[in-house]
């Protein structure tokens, strides 16, 4: 009897899995950025917040966001809608927290 071989995954499906992982880390980076930014004083005008870890985490968040968008464009399947929802909700949540800090 001949053993069945598993069908190789399409590279676009690998992009979907990578986009899901990157999107998950994007949420963690966004949350860490907001906590560090608010802990440092969180001036929404950009002039009064002292330098700190929040600057590195902001760069990590935007890099993860860009990577997630690129991987989502290359991905295949209905899972892309989930990833797009994650991207939109994470960015909106960040802007809402920053906007609430104005008050």
Structural class based on helices, strands and sheet pairing: mainly alpha
Series of H and E elements:
HHH
Number of domain modules: 1
The averaged pLDDT comes out at 87
Distance between the termini: 72 Å
- What is the helix fraction of residues, given as a range? over 70%
**Major sheet characteristics:** none
Continuous helix count: 3
Summary tags:
elongated; 3 helices; mainly alpha; 103 residues
Task: Characterise the protein shown here.
This protein is mainly α and 103 residues long. The protein has one domain. Helices cover 71% and strands 0% of the residues. The protein contains three helices and no strands. Helix 1 runs antiparallel to helix 2, helix 1 runs parallel beside helix 3 and helix 2 runs antiparallel to helix 3. The longest helix is centred in the N-terminal third of the chain and has 29 residues. The radius of gyration is 18 Å and the shape is elongated.
């Amino acid at each position: 009897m001949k053993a069945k071989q598993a069908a190789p995954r399409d590279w676009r499906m690998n992009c979907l899995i990578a986009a899901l992982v990157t999107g998950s880390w994007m949420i963690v980076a966004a949350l860490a950025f907001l906590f560090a930014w608010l802990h440092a004083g969180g001036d929404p005008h950009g002039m009064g917040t002292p330098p700190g870890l929040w600057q590195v985490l902001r760069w990590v968040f935007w890099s993860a966001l860009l990577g997630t968008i690129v991987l989502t464009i290359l991905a295949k399947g209905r899972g892309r809608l989930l990833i797009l929802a994650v991207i939109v909700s994470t960015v909106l949540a960040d802007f809402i927290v920053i906007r609430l800090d104005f008050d």
